[in-house]
Amino acid sequence: MTKKQKRMLRRILLSVALLIAVVLLCSLIPMPWPLELALYLIPYLVIGHDVLRKAFLGIAHGEVFDENFLMAIATVGAVLVQEYQEAAAVMLFYQIGELFQSYAVGKSRKSISELMDIRPDYANLVAPDGSTTQVDPEQVAVGDVILVRPGEKVPLDGTVLEGTGTLNTSALTGESRPRSAAPGDEVISGCVSVDGLLKIQVSKPFAQSTVARILDLVENSSLKKAKAENFITKFARYYTPAVCIGAVALAVIPSLFTGEWLVWFQRALTFLVISCPCALVISIPLTFFGGIGGASRCGILVKGGNYLEALAETKTIVFDKTGTLTQGVFQVAHLSPAQGVSEAALLETAALAESYSNHPISKSLRQAFGQPLDAARVTEVREIPGRGVTAKVDGKAVAAGSARLMEELGISFAAEAQPGTVVYLAQEGRFLGSILISDLEKPTAKAAIQGLRRQGIRTVMLTGDSEAVARQVAQDMQIDEAHAQLLPGDKVEWVEKLLEQKPERSTLAFVGDGINDAPVLSRADIGIAMGSLGSDAAIEAADIVLMDDDPAKIPLALRIARKCRRIVYQNIIFALGVKAVCLLLGAVGIANMWWAVFADVGVMVLAVLNATRMLRVSRWRA
Amino acid sequence: MQKKFQIEVDCANCAAKIETAIQKIGGVASASVSFMAQKLVIDADEARFDAIMKEVVKTARKIEPDFEIEL
Fold first, then answer.
1. Which of A32, A282, A459, A502 is the most exposed place for a label (fewest CB within 10 A)?
2. Would you call B11 and A236 a contact, using CB atoms and an 8 Å cutoff?
3. Can you give the residue range of the structural domain that contains A145?
């Protein structure tokens, strides 16, 4: 509890004691009403003086129709009709409700900042003489060297200079999959060093580091409001004056006919207390705040309540292929040696021939070979752009490259049937075999797509890759539709076409790796980017960022979004429903002031408790 | 110029009202008040920024007398 809340609690306890004492005193000793009033005014003023003050200031500033005003009018009215006890009790319950609300809100604020516990407290700055000093991460400049000990947070983004170890990225991604760090590796702030002692050269000032950007994003997300939030704000603007007019009508019109002014005045007061809109006004932003906080804990950064709301309506999800559904890393998938050639020899020859190239395909060959290559065995390397390489390996002429290269060299070869990139290899004019290189599917992609299809979502894949590759991936993952050989501009056109086809009142999300997809990300209703742990372009362009590039987070994000929407609807319907019933009962005289207090404070407490369900992340992560 | 301020507002409804009122102040391009984050982000005319902020505080205090801001 904060100081303010503690002070309030003391006031509540004091006025409860005073109220009980006064009630007992008045029931034991009959006394004239002015004395009774004076006695009841003590607990009433102890608990309600600030409400009265604010209501008065509000009237003075022309800002009527807020909660304070309603409470002041209702309780002062109760005093006027000589219901002193009720006046004090209503004020007391109102304040208890307010305290509870402020406590619940404070607690969710705190639990979210705890969830986002990635802000580093200090950095160990290494001086040129080797000594270290603890400084504020904001004071570290680009190029400075910092030391991260086992168990410490990496405070700033940078490159490892010395030391190896593993990093725990769970605070950023929600997954406790360790990453290794070795000299030359880029590391991002917010990770925790598990075992290694790392010397890191800082590459970005703190304000631009991953941690600062994520914190900023989460903080700002509550500034982008969901439609439901704006709806409630607008609603409250018309609702409160409408209720006040209703209350006046209730007090005056029936009395003109019946002459029972006191009865109808009392009913109008009850009506006013019931009508207080605070349950709605507080619980909806609280739900979205909790949803955004919970999602970010799972490695899903949502840039605003509006996006979370839109995500709940998603019926079409469009995927980019490379880097989104597949790893975007080329790997040797299959070796087809010609007769009399061993797989190992085929791979070794190819790796040697391509050993001077930096092309991703060459890299994948070297990686698959996995042993150090003796560069001296390779001579006369010639790269033929778009075709491949020719070289002398161990003195023999080797050609490695596309089918076109083989054709141009007049070598007969066996064409590879499977889709992917194929490297054909020949030695001294004789075909050695072919190597199929393909982009591997992400292990969770298939399950993610199927999860989405079960939720009734249309899945579409757009790719710049060949028809054959697209068809295979689509079949493998059971994607509803795939469109291949698209340029970035074509992707925008396709997304526009799909936007026209989507069911009414639904939204379309595009998931991409954020590098070439910026125009599509912004064209879709919701842009979801694979954040690749800190790629600036992705974080900028998208509305939702998946910190660990895991497609399985998409069905999870949808679940969080839907739950958030469900809670918001529950709260709106519940609060308005209870209030409507109580208003009706109050108008006909069945509901008294005590009902009114439940309709106001009770509903608010229940709505807030319902909203805080959004904060329970542990269930989603399982 | 866009700037972010730490604020203290006790009720969600007041926060929403303050937001609407600030948006109406002359020279303010956009303003957003987050009750949950207790933050005010304001985009206003740079030349008159200090004067605008004074107006913002005055407006906010009218709606919520306990409004606090770290300028």
1. A32
2. no
3. 123-152+157-203
**Closest in A63, A220, A285 to B35, CB measured:** A285
Could you tell me if residue A594 is inside a domain? no
- Has domain B2-69 been given CATH number 3.40.50.1820? no
Give CA separation, A18 vs A21, A41, A43, A118, A584, in Å. Answer: 5, 10, 6, 47, 34
CATH number of the domain that residue A133 is part of: 2.70.150.10
Cα–Cα distance measured from residue A417 to residue B10, given in angstroms and rounded to the nearest whole number: 68
Q: Does A2 touch chain B (CB under 8 A)?
A: no
Domain segments of chain B: what residues? 2-69
Look at chain B and count its residues.
Answer: 71
CB contact under 8 A, B13 and A225: no
Estimate the share of chain B in helix, then strand, then coil, as percent rounded to the nearest 5: 40, 30, 30
Residues of B in contact with A66 (CB under 8 A): 11, 13-14, 17, 63
Could you say which of A144, A157, A320, A543 is catalytic?
Answer: A320
Residue A50 appears among annotated catalytic residues: no
Q: What is the pTM of this model?
A: 0.79
Q: Hey, are the CB atoms on B39 and A224 less than 8 Å from each other?
A: no
**Does A554 map to a domain?**
no
ipTM: 0.84
- Cα pseudo-dihedral A463, A465, A471, A477, rounded to 10: -60
Identify the three-state secondary structure at position B37: coil
